[in-house]
Each structure stands twice: as C-alpha cells, then as structure tokens.
C-alpha cells in the first residue's frame, strides 16, 4: 500500500478535459480574456488552442498598430479596445465586459499554454476555489532564471510572495503570474485599481485578505514567442513596491455579508 506519494507525483490532477458543470448541476460559462498590444505574430496559436475551452473569447487590445485586432476577429474573438492605460486597465475592462461567470486570463505572447486552462478552471467549477493562480514556481519558467534582469524580477517576486505568506498565514508560491482563473463576481468585488501589470499581485493580495479561497496550479511559463518584452524593472519597480505595501498593509478589505 502506498503511504506517501513521491515528490514528483502531481499535487493536482492534470486536467485536460474541461467540465463546465458544478456539483450543484449549474453549467458555468467561461470567458478567456486575452490582453494584446502588437501581438500579430503570436496571437493565432494562443486563440486557436484557447477556443475549445472558451464560451467567449475576448481580446482586449491596447491600440495595436500591427493588425492584431483584425487577426483576433478572423480567429473568432470578440475584440474591444482598452483605455490606453496599460495591461491592468485592460484586464479590468475585460472583467466588466465579459459574459462568462468564470474568467481566465491568458497572455497573447505565447508565454502561456492554453492547455493549462482546464486545470485552472476545474477547482472553481468544483466549488473548491474562487481564484486559481498559475504558478511558475511549481510549473517552471523559461523567463525568470537566466539573466541578471530576470534574477532581479524573480528576487522581487519572491520577497512579495514571502511577505504575503507570513502576514496572511498562507503558502503561495507565485503572486504575479498573468495566467489565472477567477470567478467574475469575485474579480468585480475586489474593486481592482491597478493600471499596469501590478494588477496580478493586487488580485492575489486582495483575494487572500478578503477571505476568498485562492488555489494554485502548476503552469509552465514559456519565453515570449516573437518580439520584445515591454517590461523594464527600472521603470515600474516603485509601482510594484507601492501597490504591494499598500494592499498588504493599509488597504481595508470590504465587509462581506
Ligand atoms: N490590452 C493591452 N494589453 C497589453 C498592454 N501591455 C501589454 N499587453 C499584453 O499583456 C501581455 C503581457 O505583456 P508582456 O509585454 O508580455 O509583459 P510580461 O509578460 O509581463 O513581460 P515579458 O514576459 O517579459 O514580455 C501580452 O499579451 C501583451 O500583449 C496594454 O497596454 N494593453
Ligand atoms: Mg510575457
């Protein structure tokens, strides 16, 4: 008889089929939200492989000039334009516009494998979680471990995760991954404010501090398929530090009935 499972045994079942029906018999509707800014060379495979899991495929475009919007429409996505403030504001718009009751956020640059969508959605459909974050620490990352710049990102990210764990008595491994699923009503109740990629840590910290059930699924992060990253630590580090400290220490979770 097996007593302890070996460490390599996956902690969560590797779900590939997406079941939309919860234990109460209710059928969930899934909106996959894809933020894009000039991703014409990367978008098609992301949308093609996400489509089977999406009842609604929603591309929120940041005023691309390379034909991204036209390509998204050809691939069957509903396309809306963001407010020109950044990825965080684009995701907030996607949350408001989505018709599904479960939202899945997937980057358009090829960093995220749409085959991970079922594993992110399954705990929400099962009624076991309100918000499921993909974890690069559990699933591995090609973007965080090679250069000095990546080391600085990883180090900063680990400090933030540690501080959340110790203050909130939880054991998370990744607070900043763009790949995640969340109940739409929960996402709206968080009253998110961030306009840039700080939205990921805002979602995680506010979810935990509001008492929502946050789970993680191992997901691998790939190198952006084509093009250059727009992310520059030196331009945004203070916004990360400010939002981290504010939501963790000063923000007051709203009273939940
Ligand atoms: N709608 C919208 N999407 C954006 C904006 N900025 C970035 N994105 C998209 O958000 C996703 C993540 O952006 P990236 O530039 O890859 O940023 P990152 O993933 O944090 O950094 P790297 O992986 O290092 O490139 C991609 O799909 C981008 O196209 C924006 O202002 N508006
Ligand atoms: Mg990326």
What do you see in this structure?
The protein is built from nine helices and seven strands, in the order E-H-E-H-E-H-E-H-E-H-H-E-H-H-E-H. The protein has helices spanning 43-50, 68-74, 87-97, 117-125, 136-139, 148-168, 184-189, 199-210, 233-250; strands at residues 30-36, 56-61, 78-81, 102-105, 131-135, 180-183, 214-218. A seven-stranded mixed β-sheet has the order 3-2-1-4-6-5-7, with helices on both faces. Helix 8 (199-210) packs parallel to helix 9.
Strand order of the largest sheet: 3-2-1-4-6-5-7
Number of helices: 9
Main sheet attributes: strand count, strand direction, barrel closure: 7 strands, mixed
Shape: globular
Report the end-to-end length measured between terminal Cα atoms: 46 Å
- Count of discrete domains: 1
Mean pLDDT over all positions? 93
Order of helices and strands: EHEHEHEHEHHEHHEH
Question: Beta-sheet strand percentage?
Answer: 5-15%
CATH fold topology: Spore Coat Polysaccharide Biosynthesis Protein SpsA, Chain A
Bound molecules: guanosine-5'-triphosphate, magnesium ion
Helix/sheet category? alpha/beta
Can you tell me the CATH architecture? Alpha-Beta Complex
What's the CATH class, please?
Answer: Alpha Beta
């Amino acid at each position: 008889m097996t007593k302890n499972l070996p460490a390599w045994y996956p902690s969560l079942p590797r779900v590939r089929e997406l079941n939309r029906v919860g234990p109460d018999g209710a059928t969930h509707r899934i909106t996959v939200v894809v933020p894009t800014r000039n991703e014409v060379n990367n978008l098609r495979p992301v949308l093609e492989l996400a489509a089977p899991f999406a009842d609604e495929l929603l591309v929120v475009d940041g005023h691309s000039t390379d034909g991204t919007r036209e390509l998204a429409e050809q691939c069957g996505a509903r396309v809306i334009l963001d407010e020109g403030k950044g990825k965080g504001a684009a995701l907030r718009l996607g949350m408001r516009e989505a018709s599904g009751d479960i939202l899945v956020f997937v980057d358009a640059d090829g960093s995220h494998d749409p085959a991970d969508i079922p594993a992110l959605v399954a705990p929400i459909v099962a009624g076991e979680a309100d918000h499921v974050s993909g974890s690069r620490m559990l699933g591995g990352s090609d973007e965080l471990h090679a250069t000095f710049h990546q080391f600085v990102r990883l180090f900063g990210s680990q400090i933030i995760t540690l501080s959340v764990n110790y203050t909130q008595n939880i054991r998370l491994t990744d607070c900043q991954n763009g790949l995640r699923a969340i109940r739409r009503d929960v996402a709206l109740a968080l009253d998110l404010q961030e306009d840039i990629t700080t939205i990921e840590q805002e979602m995680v910290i506010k979810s935990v501090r509001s008492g929502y059930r946050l789970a993680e699924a191992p997901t691998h992060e790939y190198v952006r398929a084509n093009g250059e990253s727009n992310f520059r630590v030196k331009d945004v580090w203070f916004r990360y530090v400010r939002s981290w400290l504010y939501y963790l220490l000063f923000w007051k979770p709203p009273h939940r009935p």
